[in-house]
Task: inverse folding
């Protein structure tokens, strides 16, 4: 218990583990970077580059290039 990959406990007391990625991570912006929207966020004093999440490279590519729109 509490070994490698251990990250905590669920509300019901179950042990939670993090599964290591088999590929590199990339940063994904939560807020859009499209110039018109980026300008709006800037006027609201929101730094869009401060709000990112780490995603495996293949999933990040899928989000931007492969998903059906």
Result:
């Amino acid at each position: 218990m509490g070994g490698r990959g251990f990250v905590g406990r669920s509300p019901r007391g179950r042990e939670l583990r993090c599964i290591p990625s088999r590929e590199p991570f990339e940063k994904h912006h939560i807020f859009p970077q499209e110039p018109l929207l980026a300008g709006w966020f800037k006027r609201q004093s929101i730094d869009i580059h401060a709000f990112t999440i780490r995603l495996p490279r293949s999933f990040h590519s899928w989000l931007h290039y492969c998903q059906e729109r």
The chain has a mean pLDDT of 85. The chain has two helices and four strands. Residues 23-69 form one domain. The helical segments are 35-43, 57-66.
